[in-house]
Amino acid sequence: MIPVAATSREARRRRLIAAAFLLPALVLLGALVVHPIGYSIYRSFFDRSGDSFVGAGNYRQILSDDTIRTALKNTAVWVVLAPTTATALGLIFAVLTERVRWGTAFKLLVFMPMAISMLAAGIIFRLVYDHDPDRGIANAVWVGVHDTFAESSAFPKARPGRDSPLVPADGGAFVTRDPVTAGTPAVLPLVGVAPESLPEGTRTAKSAPAEPGRVTGTAWQDFTRGGGGRTNAVDPSESAFAGMRIEAVKDGKVVASTTTRADGTFSLPAAADGARLQLPASNFREAYAGVQWLGPSLVTPAVIGAYVWMWAGFAMVLIGAGLAAVPRELLEAARVDGANEWQVFRRITVPVLAPVLVVVLVTLVINVMKVFDLVFVIAPGAVQDDANVLALQLYRTSFGTDADPGLGSAIAVLLLVLVVPVMLVNIRRLRKEGSR
Question: Which residues are CB-contacts of 166 (< 8 A; sequence separation ≥ 6)?
Answer without folding.
Answer: 160, 174, 175, 176, 177, 188, 189, 190, 279
